[in-house]
Amino acid sequence: MFDLNNCLILCRIIDLGIMELSEKQLHIIKVTEELFAKNGFDGTSVRMIAKTANINIAMISYYFGSKEKLLETIVNYRISNFKIEIDQVISDGTSYLNKVDSIIAIIIKRIHKGRRIQKLVHFEFSRENPKIDFSNYLKQKEENLELFRTLIEAGQKEGIFSKDVNIELIIPTILGSYFNLYYNKKIYSKVHGLFKEEDFDQFVFTTLTQHIQRTIKAILTYEE
Amino acid sequence: MFDLNNCLILCRIIDLGIMELSEKQLHIIKVTEELFAKNGFDGTSVRMIAKTANINIAMISYYFGSKEKLLETIVNYRISNFKIEIDQVISDGTSYLNKVDSIIAIIIKRIHKGRRIQKLVHFEFSRENPKIDFSNYLKQKEENLELFRTLIEAGQKEGIFSKDVNIELIIPTILGSYFNLYYNKKIYSKVHGLFKEEDFDQFVFTTLTQHIQRTIKAILTYEE
Amino acid sequence: MFDLNNCLILCRIIDLGIMELSEKQLHIIKVTEELFAKNGFDGTSVRMIAKTANINIAMISYYFGSKEKLLETIVNYRISNFKIEIDQVISDGTSYLNKVDSIIAIIIKRIHKGRRIQKLVHFEFSRENPKIDFSNYLKQKEENLELFRTLIEAGQKEGIFSKDVNIELIIPTILGSYFNLYYNKKIYSKVHGLFKEEDFDQFVFTTLTQHIQRTIKAILTYEE
Amino acid sequence: MFDLNNCLILCRIIDLGIMELSEKQLHIIKVTEELFAKNGFDGTSVRMIAKTANINIAMISYYFGSKEKLLETIVNYRISNFKIEIDQVISDGTSYLNKVDSIIAIIIKRIHKGRRIQKLVHFEFSRENPKIDFSNYLKQKEENLELFRTLIEAGQKEGIFSKDVNIELIIPTILGSYFNLYYNKKIYSKVHGLFKEEDFDQFVFTTLTQHIQRTIKAILTYEE
DNA sequence: TATGAATGAGACTTCATTCAT
DNA sequence: GATGAATGAAGTCTCATTCAT
């Protein structure tokens, strides 16, 4: 019924300890995710959610405890899937530059899929007093960063990557390139003539991905 | 009283046609800007604004018409100042690479100063049905993009910059690198040991700026 | 519990399509009706309604959607009952003059019962930009006018009623006589010594009704 | 500048004791009159008045004391002009039936001219607790009624008018016929094909006036 | 005389949640 | 397990009036 990879979800659920989601809960999550992305957390009312999901208004409190807990559930549910499959890329036999290309392609695919909730996370996470607990998100991010650092440092040791590069800032450059495009989609769609949703998706997976790959490879090999 | 460059504001005002802001209005704007950045638009109530600004709650409507009009005023007020002074950089006698460095430094300074309202703009502007009129913001963005494109194309003609680069995607890479760092400030502050506000500011103006400068120069000169 | 003829209401409801009123809703309607009559639409606050009806202030929106929708509901509810039972009067065996007498008596009873909301309708309906949808009211009015016209024209054909009479203006004369008395009740109560509410009711059903009956019969048989 | 008969106004002003209206006040009155007619008393804000009259919002309180006092001033100003010139009609040499015709024509002209404020008076005066003092209006009404009664009784003595007629109810029939048409203007304009404002005016002064004249004459001479 | 900034009160509506069923 | 009626709190905005200028 949903385009969610149930297997992964279950893995993740185990990792978090509890969390068992019924089909109805998943339905609510999916609907809410879109509404949150459209209107933000405060801009989305439980009324709206209930109506869109075609459920009783009391169900949100009933199933998730509160609106905030619902957000937390969604974030944990979605963000967690963000863990990139770098391991297998790292252990394949290709060159370091190819590895970087592959990882970037994977990252872009991931964040494009989860862009809606990521947007909300960007917003909520950067607040002084976030409404929800982002410890899971944080842990995930740090893990990914570590994996990436390991790869780059290995490349540096082999003399393939420049040592002047600030590794910690590469991830922001990758993700930021995507998100800044996404946040200014209206402008760039016009500039690049992307009138349909599919056009934008296509653009992201080809032109943007190539640009970022090129950028990162350039920076990794650049010597002043 | 405020850290606003009044001269520039007035210039901009002329450009916009009207807009005369009293000191009280400026005070409200400043307070609101912070609250919006902290809590978002929907998360900030006029009650909150009035209380923080120590004014009567009716003053918001009185001065700005409505909460949304207030946001619009703030955006026009802030975003407009975003027009970069590329012209003089372009016309100075330095090399193209130096020009790029200078422009990036200017951009970073600008967006760091306006980051709070930019965050809100990112959020509201990328919605399907934005609450406010962003035509001014859009115009500004497109203008800036054009200026930048002109510079790069000139450099390409002179054989200094690679022709493989996707010029339209450079701006997202610059801005995105900054904003992704900002949106994940909590993570990167920890990673880079930036515990005080000033530390982060300093980091942005030195390490991050250098990283971005290096990145853009790399991409502009990269040949596969 | 209420003086409402539930049977008729239900009939009307079927005619309108939907509309199911709970007892609580009926209670609110009744209270509101009086307040609207006393203070007008704009002069009545939902606060006032809630307090008088002894309900939570949010119930008005909850049940009716908005204050205006509440008015609309009341009007549809009341006005609809205005459909006169002329048919049976027309088909009884009495003389045309008797029929006119009966119909006038029925009309006066009806409008006296619904005078409060009628007053509001007079006011709102005659505005340039009415706040509510009066299509139902309009339809009802036109229907009634048509029924009346049919009767008079039949009487004219039989040579009983004068042909000089302006049929469309008879209804305004009937209703207007009542309402002008009602709107100037304070004056006429004094003139006719009607000090109690019941005295006025009595006066309406006897003296005023006779006056109107006499008036209409006079005009229908008058030959210059 | 205004279509007001200043002479009469001054006479009336003397009658009321005080009241001196500057041109600006008259301007406000005129504007307010229309707004009150359009939106009712509670539906009209001083803001609206100030804006429409192109004056400062504080002027209303400044000139008239309060919004309610403004209404009172308008009513006294307008209603007072309602005093009909029956005297000269009574003393002219024509027949009683002609006198009635003339008086009705005068009345219709008067109330059509003052219909807007009359509507408001109908509404406010019939409230249990009117917001303003209507003693002047009341006095005027009673005077007029007395004049009319005198005429009819004289006609009855001469054997021209029936003695069965309820004199006090004739005025409501006259005024009511007009106002019920006016309050349902939307319906009757359609029925009579009166699409332009002038058409309606014309209809009032010809067809409606004739109908009422005919009606009153009929009732005055009707013998069962 | 005339202004407009400023205010406290109150307008209508929607909020997230609870609780009896 | 699930509902929906009901609620108190808070949302934004407009109200008529005042007061210093």
Describe this structure in words.
The structure is a homotetramer of 224-residue chains. With 224 residues, chain A is mainly α. The first copy, chain A, folds into two domains: 6-79, Arc Repressor Mutant, subunit A (Orthogonal Bundle), CATH 1.10.10.60; 84-221, Tetracycline Repressor, domain 2 (Orthogonal Bundle). In chain A, 72% of the residues lie in helices and 0% in strands. In chain A, α2 packs across α3. The longest helix of chain A has 25 residues, at 197-221. The N and C termini of chain A lie far apart (54 Å). Chain B binds a DNA duplex (21 and 21 nucleotides) through α4.
Mind telling me which CATH architecture of the largest domain in chain A this is? Orthogonal Bundle
Domain count of chain A: 2
Q: Helix tally of chain A?
A: 12
Shape of chain A: globular
Largest interface: which pair? Answer: A-B, 55 and 55 residues
Q: How many whole angstroms does the radius of gyration of chain A measure?
A: 19 Å
Distance between the termini of chain A: 54 Å
Unreliable parts of chain A? 1-18
What is the top-level CATH class of the largest domain in chain A?
A: Mainly Alpha
Kindly name the structural category of chain A: mainly alpha
Oligomerization state: homotetramer
* Main sheet makeup of chain A: none
Number of strands of chain A: 0
As for the CATH topology of the largest domain in chain A, it is Tetracycline Repressor, domain 2
Which series of helices and strands of chain A comes N to C?
A: HHHHHHHHHHHH
Beta-strand portion of chain A reads under 5%
Helix content of chain A: over 70%
Mean pLDDT of chain A: 84
Protein name (chains A, B, C, D): TetR family transcriptional regulator
InterPro entries (chains A, B, C, D): DNA-bd_HTH_TetR-type_CS, Homeodomain-like_sf, HTH-type_Tx_Regulator, HTH_TetR, Tet_transcr_reg_TetR-rel_C_sf
Organism (chains A, B, C, D): Zunongwangia atlantica 22II14-10F7
Keywords (chains A, B, C, D): DNA-binding
